[in-house]
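Hello K.,

You asked for the raw outputs rather than the summary table, so here they are, unedited. I folded two proteins back to back in the same session to keep the settings identical. This is the first:
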Amino acid sequence: MSVILNFVESLRFLGLPISPSETITAQQVFQYLGAVNKEVLRMGLKVAILKRYEDFNIFNVCFDQYFVGIESREKENDPHLSPESESFLRAMQRSTNTNDALIAELIVTDQLNEAVQTAMMMVPTGGGTAGGQPAEQERFNLQQRLSRALNRTFNLEVPIRGLTPSQRMELSSEIIRIGFNLYQLFNEIEKREVTDTKDNISREVIVNETPEDLYQLDQFLTQDLATVSATMANIKEHLLEIGKILASRERRRRRLAKHGKLDFRRTIRKNLKNNGVMLELVHKHKRIEDPEIIILNDVSGSTRWIADWFFVICYTAQQVYKKIRVFEFDNTMVEVSSALSRKTIDRAMKDRQECWKRPLRTRRIHSDYQDSFEDFFHLIKHKPLNKRTSILILGDCRDFEGMWRHDHPISSEYIQKMVNTAKRVLILNPESHNLWNAGDSVVKYYQQVGAYVYQVATLQDLLDFVFQLKIPN
């Protein structure tokens, strides 16, 4: 499993969105095909992982590096460097740290083991350098220097993973190869650091009160979703713990909000026993109704990588909101609210899959917002929307198979119906802003009819929205 996990994490580092379920599928393909015929394996993994033609070049370069690259380069035995590699080395030679150029040379010549050993000598495991900085900070500084040099050398305004698919398609194979090797370098250093610790402590993020753990928690929550490489098994317990903390905070906020203005008459009357000294204050009680929340979770191929995490957040949100309903959709819609009542998250996720055994229409591969929203209104016909209902939609608004009427997608008519009958409609889009309204994205049409669309780039964004920390009034 580690072979495919490392390969998938490398692709995610370079910007390819790959879900945990697609990683499992890739592992099954690898187990079935084996590593004997590399071209058959290449085709199998490509079918299991890729969604866009624009990602083919990154996949092919990384596959060659990971599975057949070293073998083919030994046969070629070509000592000459490419112009891109020479440019990168010249940039590193101008670094203030003399060891950077040596590590860069080992990277561009694919001598990763030697590069790791050199870097580990620079940053001893469990300690720091002569400058007194901790090893973790030194590794981070080294990674920043190499990454900045790569970006400056090839005029990249943002890291490779931050580029649009069309921009990544224009990258040369050498730039991708160097970026891939950079990731492998720091991934291997981190692995060795974990292995060499005395108690072999796991580096997973935990929710504690120590400064180190709080720092790790902050890194975990604020990491770009496209680069989060943890699987659902490793991440769900952390999300549950964080959700409990936020649920407790939200319950306390709502409890305090029930205290209205000071009731002077009742306060004076109650303090007569104290000779008029205001020792006990009485507030007017303010009634706060539980909000009704409906969550629509896009589980189609383009957002499947985040849908599982969002379901775990919904599972914790029920500790705060008694009136919460959760639906999932791709080209049809099913309600999975019943799964939230299970005592454990594992049982809830199992029952969630059971709900998909009875869809209203036959499931297809691609998303269809029109049919899904039509099914949604059919499912809620016995309890229609009202002005106390807030609707949260997690999806990239890519209406691949939806039909159009004149100059707008028909799915936008259903969004308008939601806006007119509900309190608010919020769309949480995990895609980068520069991908909105490109291709089959229909974000602007949903905005035109009154839906609020926000980018959710991190897990912290998702948690904030679900627990109503950032929902506009």
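The second followed immediately with the same parameters:
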Amino acid sequence: MKAEPASEENRFAAIFQNRNFRLLWVSQLFGQSAQQAIFFVLLVMVEELTRSSALVGLMVLVVNLPSILLSLPTGVMVDRFRKKQILLFCNISRVFVVAAFVFFNRYMRGGGLLTAVYILTFVLSTIGQLSDPAESAMVPLLVPSHQLLTANSVFHLLFNVAQVLGLLVLAPISLKLGGVDGAFATISLTYLLTAGLIGPISVHESPSEHRPAGDALRQFLEELQAGWRFIISKRLVLIAISQHALISVLTMIITVLAPGFSTRILGMQPADAINIFFSAGLGMFLTTLWTGQRGHRFRRETLAAVGLLIAGLGLVGFTFVAWSSEMHASSPPQPSQQVIMLVAGMALMLGVGGTLAAVAVQTTVQEHAPIEIRGRVISAEFLFANVAGLLPMLVVSGLADVVGIPAVLMGLSLVVLTSALLSFRSRPSPRDA
């Protein structure tokens, strides 16, 4: 067995001493913040233009459609070209696409403007399908293998911080100060800054392959099949991708159930419920810190299984609260302090478990996927997680109205706990690992 690297080498401070990783992290902090902000601004814009919830929902569909249609083709492109070049291309392209929103908003009106907004949104989301796997595939090129778990923990923290910066700072402030056009201009400049930070990164990558164009379609299909063949043949990777899909399902379902749980089970106003579910974000933050500092001491498969177990137990707690409320009151009373503390604790467990599992499975995929097909494997992982989460998200809202929130939570608890137990059993022996 290999000697464990010194714990100091796995701390956040140590990994940020890596100049190239630091540049990538800061660039993606700006890029992800801009990405969160732009879609919020677009929803505001469509609402102002149409006053139609259906057309706002169509915007959400347009944003998510490229993740289903184009994940696999973009994975092939990530493997064919240098990751740094892809990230530069994506962020420079975003500068012009976002600037185009300003142009069309100033010089078009009515249905033509709305059509242009949907088309540009689709293009912007497509760029994201190319950028995200490229960034994930680039991380293992910048850090030693024993720091990869810490690096993924740091990036998981980045996404949480970027959501706050994008949705609570960049979008609302730019909208208030400059309106929709001012917000677009600010976001465009943010993408330009992102590209400027990526430029100085020094990374060793093989040159892009020059392939004959004669049978491009056959080559493309063969490359797609190579990624899927690897995933199916590599048991650890297949399990990790399945666990990622389960985490995605869990996240989407909890998001759908949260408003109903707050009002129908707890009898609270949605604004008050935010204070309780804030503890889930706290759990995510604390787990990210712990994983970066101590997670390297444990096997990735163990971390993923423990994460699912903690999340499953958190769901059992939510189920207990829901059943108790349904049995003791025809209408939800104001929750006691004990109930509030219990729900906050269960939300904390969901944040802890989901984050622990997510960081562990992402590291497993990166570690085991060969560099020549890593982009395709990561794109397939993202695709599987997105598709697996869509159907349950659409079904559960209606199912909760028919059978009740407690029954849905109980079923979800059983699925997650069963998956956790299977994850413990499926771990390879130390010798195999």
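The chain is about 85% helix and 0% strand.

Happy to rerun anything if the numbers look odd on your end.

Regards,
P.
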